[in-house]
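Request:
Um, any thoughts?
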Amino acid sequence: MENFMAHTAQILLLAFLAITFLQSGLDKIFDWKGNVGWLNDHFSKTFFKGTVPVLLGVVLFLEMISGVLCAVGIFQLVFDGKTDMGLYGAILSAITLLLLLFGQRVAKDYDGARTIVIYFMPTLFLIYLFQ
């Protein structure tokens, strides 16, 4: 419990990222066809046209790994006081968000890009807290 109290902000931010990415990844797994269909339309006028399933697979992989690392990071921080898994999860989360931001900008979905920035800010703050 002592580690939880000493690292409350990091644990809450790791939980935020774990929930965000695991839920998003699971949504992609359970509604693959719906996601591919929507994204094919979203990127139909970009150079991503025709590559959506592959790119969605990459994003799915990164989201799931990010979420798992963040979840493992919570347990490691609470029980061992170590921060390496949480830091790796936060860094991979930031990279994943940058890729999502890039996709939204390419699609000229500026509202979607703005939403990604909202997730990016606490992610950067978490990385800062781990340094």
About this structure: Residues 52-80 form the longest helix (29 residues). The two ends are 22 Å apart (CA to CA). The chain has a mean pLDDT of 95. The chain has six helices and no strands.
